[in-house]
Amino acid sequence: MSKRLLLLLPAGLLVQQVLPASDDIIIAATLPSEAATCPACGTSSRRVHSHYQRRLADLPWQGRPVTLRLQARRFRCLDPTCTRQTFAERLPEVAAAGARRTRRLGDLQRCVGLALGDKAGARLIERLACVFRSKSAPDSDLKSAVDSGMKSAIPIGSRHPCGVGGCSTAGLGPGLLSRWTRGGARMPAERVSMRRVREILRLKYEACASDRAIGLAVGVARSTARLCLDRAAAAGLTWPLPATLTDGALEALLFAGGGAVAGQRRKAEPDWAVVHRELRRPGVTLMLLWEEYRASTPGGYQYSR
């Protein structure tokens, strides 16, 4: 068996056979350990009670789904006082007890789901051949509080009303705060957003590009590009911008007082410090926070993916 193929499999498995099929790939594997530990009493045992076959969905290979067919074992517990007479060997590094997919496949599906949402994530998962073929949907764990790292749900009434749905971290208009914010931003959002604003102004005043062309080039909506240009005009900014104008000063000029443009009705914004704090709590989702915000602030910002 090629060592390169073995490196593509979860650690701790011995490959016995590779069975390529028309639609997928089946890899027959076993565990190299001769003993297992009882999950109830912690006693190590080498006495095999029986064998059974376990099938686990794994990461795809060359666009084809991969299924691990494991020859697993049940052991007899050697402790006469243990409540379990037999137990199945565990695969802590490969899959959870009773799972039908490997941990790394589940991690990939959750990452895609948290970044894109249920429907868009499910479409991408299917395109990547990472679909978990079972009676449940491939993204069902995204809706599970336990599997998404949320140990228990918290009633809405036990928290202070706050909301989300309006101002984005880029300061470019309505946006969405992702659950990834619980892990911390990977780069300064203010600096990135101001570079984008500078590019919008440059394309408008140097290239005389339309709002639609600017949005496509910068990666924002046409309405967002127009909003930035209106704010720049209201702030009296001219192009080229002064070389001494820092990102912080530019942001203060464009979005002073919440970024309201002259003649534009300002919507009530949520307390963003409270939003970030609430998102770190178990069981708190973005949709729950927005529902509270909508109930307490009629006519506020809308929720969108």
Give a verbal description of the structure.
The strands form 2 sheets. Strands 1, 2, 5, 6 and 7 form a 5-stranded mixed sheet that branches. By secondary structure, the protein is an alpha+beta fold. It starts with a helix and ends in a 9-residue tail after the last helix. The model is unreliable at 1-6, 134-192 and 258-264 (pLDDT under 50). It is 31% helix and 15% strand. It has 3 domains: 3-100, no CATH class; 106-143, no CATH class; 179-296, no CATH class. The chain contains 9 helices and 7 strands, in the order αβββββββαααααααα.
List keywords for this structure.
305 residues; alpha+beta; 3 domains; five-stranded mixed sheet; 31% helix; elongated
Please tally the β strands and state the result.
7
Alpha-carbon Rg, integer: 27 Å
Largest sheet, in brief, is: 5 strands, mixed
Mean pLDDT: 73
Q: What's the structural domain tally?
A: 3
Large-scale geometry: elongated
The structural class is alpha+beta
CA-CA gap between termini: 46 Å
Helix content: 25-40%
Secondary-structure element pattern, one letter each = HEEEEEEEHHHHHHHH
List segments where confidence is low: pLDDT < 50 over at least 5 consecutive residues: 1-6, 134-192, 258-264
How big a fraction of the residues is strand?
Answer: 15-25%
Helices and strands in order:
Elements (H helix, E strand, L loop, with lengths): L2 H5 L6 E7 L4 E6 L5 E2 L6 E2 L2 E14 L2 E13 L9 E3 L14 H14 L1 H10 L61 H17 L5 H8 L3 H13 L12 H8 L17 H8 L6 H11 L9
Parallel strand pairs: 2-6
Antiparallel strand pairs: 1-2, 3-4, 5-6, 6-7
